[in-house]
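Quick illustration for those who missed Monday's session on complexes.
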Amino acid sequence: MEESSPTAIGAIETRKAHPYDAEAILAAHLDSIRSIGPRFYSSEIVDAWVAGLTANVYVNAMEGGEVFFIAVGPLNGESAVLGFASHRVDDDQDGASVYVRGMASRCGIGTKLLGLAEEHARANGAKSIKIQASLAGVAFYQANGFEEIGRGEALLMTGQSMPCIFMRKLL
Ligand SMILES: CC(C)(COP(=O)(O)OP(=O)(O)OC[C@H]1O[C@@H](n2cnc3c(N)ncnc32)[C@H](O)[C@@H]1OP(=O)(O)O)[C@@H](O)C(=O)NCCC(=O)NCCS
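Prediction with coenzyme A bound:
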């Protein structure tokens, strides 16, 4: 699938992201971790989770083949990225991740974005998707058809790690 046509959830549009969206994706990513993460992790882990995130992280990921989908909608009277999902292939394994701003959570945005990432994976021949789910995402991924296949630690950019649940969905 190449350019996806924007679809709207109320006043919210979803579309494939481009490198020029990187700063807006970063802002949504930081908001999501900072607003939702502390319900599930210590402040030390939340600090380590955001450390090292810069706009270049997404630009480099896009250049490496990771595809991002964003939800754009109103935030404090301006248009902003409210959340994003991505699909990537590492060592022949299809992976995805989803982040939504705290103020925009539980509105179906994460589900919509995950659906776009799954659609992209399927269109590229994936038969399943694996996720290192943060504890803040487990119930969401379960609600979207993922099953636990193990537990462990996710490595962060600081070299620290955080507990996570390994999950998989057959497509
Ligand atoms: C996980 C996340 C992306 C979910 O996004 P969202 O837009 O709020 O999800 P949706 O509104 O589509 O939720 C769909 C369903 O998932 C489940 N769900 C989502 N968040 C949940 C939560 N915090 N607790 C329990 N169930 C939850 C519910 O069944 C929900 O349906 P409902 O609202 O009708 O009950 C968001 O909470 C987030 O960004 N978390 C922090 C970052 C993170 O950990 N991301 C995962 C990285 S691997």
